[in-house]
Amino acid sequence: MRLFKVIFSTIIVLISSVGFSADEDDLIEPCDQVVLAGDAGWPPYIIVNDNGISGIGVQLAEKIFKQLDIPVKTIAFYNHLELLQALRTGDIDVLVSTYPHNDIASTTNLIQPEYLLDPITVAVKTNNLGNASSWESLAGHNGVMDMTFSADQESQDFFAVYLNVRDKLDLGKAVDAVLDGDAYYILGSKNQLQYTIADNDLQNLLVISSKVQRPASIYMALRKGSPCNQYAPFLTKRLQDYKNDGTVDRLVNSYISVKEN
Q1: What are 171-182's pLDDT values in tens digits?
Q2: DSSP alpha helices (H): ranges in the chain?
Q3: Using CA atoms, how far apart are residues 217 and 253, in angstroms rounded to an integer?
Q4: C-alpha closest to that of 43 among 59, 27, 30
């Protein structure tokens, strides 16, 4: 496996040097370790428990870099602003899951195309499901969301018009706010809300509306300037391989068992 890594890196260096000469200082910096990161409030892409950090995005990234024989370190951020700062200071190499939005546009390159579709939706108390028939039906109601959740930019602009998301809380407290009646709905990604409902045995209390959804795509992203950018083509190919051969779907199904209504 080490031989594969050396050959792969050598090919990239040779290809990138065609047509110009480079000084020794311009040679590609080695990617000796890759730092993976994500928002702790966005399961099942990042899951933090007594066993460490896991999740869909983490497992996919670990699987890919294991093939390159590159050790990984994973960081879960409980504050989205801290994650953005870590990108700016170069302390992160890969975001394991993200929607495309302006906050990361200047610091990362998305691995195109997306590796998973995960629509943005809402969960409401079961007895309120009939009233949650469209995004417009939520107008005038207080909503809540996890403090680390960032929708895609188009959806953020849409929500600014239609929704009153009053509070951004820890995910558990956001769920409690809906259960206690302090908020009418919780906004998040479909996989995030399905996982949270199942993990807390709330299937009889909270439900996801199939009529209130916006399509959205999940990407990995490489920090601009990371030495691990030399492996972007390999990362792109492997993510699409895992998407096409069912690996991604199997990972999602292993974490989620709640159906929408």
Answers
A1: 999 999 999 999
A2: 2-16, 56-67, 80-89, 102-105, 153-162, 171-179, 190-199, 232-244, 247-255
A3: 17
A4: 59
Same topology for domains 2-116+218-255 and 119-214, yes or no?
yes
Match 């020794």 to its residue by tokens: 24
Residue type, 202: L
> What is the residue type of 176?
D
Give the DSSP H or E segment for 37: strand 34-39
What predicted TM-score, i.e. pTM, was given to this entire model?
A: 0.85
Going from the C-alpha of 55 to that of each of 38, 39, 251, the distances in angstroms are 10, 11, 9
The CATH architecture to which 2-116+218-255 belongs is: 3-Layer(aba) Sandwich (3.40)
Single-letter amino acid, residue 169: L
- Encoded tokens for 261: 């209504």
Residue 218: partners with Cβ closer than 8 Å, 6 or more residues away:
45, 57, 97, 98, 99, 114, 115, 116, 117, 118, 189
Do the strands 142-146 and 164-169 form a parallel or antiparallel pair, or are they unpaired? parallel
Percent of all residues in the chain with a pLDDT value above 90, rounded to a whole number: 77
* Domain range 119-214, CATH class: alpha beta
Phi, psi (deg, nearest 5) at residue 176: -60, -35
Dist CA 195 CA 145 (whole Å): 15
